[in-house]
Amino acid sequence: MATIAKSVTKDSTAPKVDVASSPDRGRFTFHHSWFDKDVLPEWEEFTLPLRAKKLHILEVGSFEGASTTWLLDNLMTHQESTMTAVDTFEGGMEHQGSELYDIASLESRFRSNVNQCKNVDRLRVIRAKSDDALLDLRREKARFDFIYIDASHVALDVLHDAVVCWRMLNVGGAMVFDDVAWKGYMEDCYNPRIAIKSFLQCAEQELEATETEGQMWVRKVPNHIPATPNPDPALYYWGKGMAVKL
Fold first, then answer.
1. Taking Cα atoms as reference points, which of 53, 126, 121, 117 lies closest to residue 88?
2. Please, what's the largest Cα pairwise distance for the chain?
3. 3 DSSP assignment
4. What pLDDT was estimated at residue 243?
5. Residues 144, 57 contacting (CB under 8 angstroms)
6. How far is residue 60 from each of residues 161, 177, 186, measured CA to CA in Å?
């Protein structure tokens, strides 16, 4: 089982990745360069401990395949590694009604991009909503070492994806959330951050987390906060007017 570094904070003494020797990103066609422009450098650095190891990878939300192709080229080099990608290829709530994203050709762009990766034969693509696909994977007893969550940006959907994916993540594995700082809606109840922060609080006892400029990197660890029984029966229940701190 592969294990990501205990800390994913940037370390000036860590070996640098020779990006020039990495597979050529220019062979892909992306209408939007969010991944390469915003997060690629930290992915190159933070995933160093995972290179050349046997990994089972899950990507929830693939869009044009920017992160998919990078994962295939860089973290799928072990011959027994596998990858599963889940997407409806219909875009999210924020993409509807906009010609900017050309949703009609989204799946064909994705498949054209991933088909240029030599490890594509070990990629399983599930065309479905994460609501259904993740539960099916759980029923299959699937386990993963690296999970990337970048599907629906609606908070309730993000929370669902986080909880179900966490159940399938091996101890020592990493789960990465995109768009932790994205605020596409005026109401916080719709944005990803409230879901990600809520999940981190609920699973605090078995994770270590580091927030970068736009993403949250979470490492699953053995439970390190044992449950302490409440010794006072009078305090078993929240009283009226008592706020639950989030």
1. 126
2. 65
3. -
4. 59
5. yes
6. 8, 10, 25
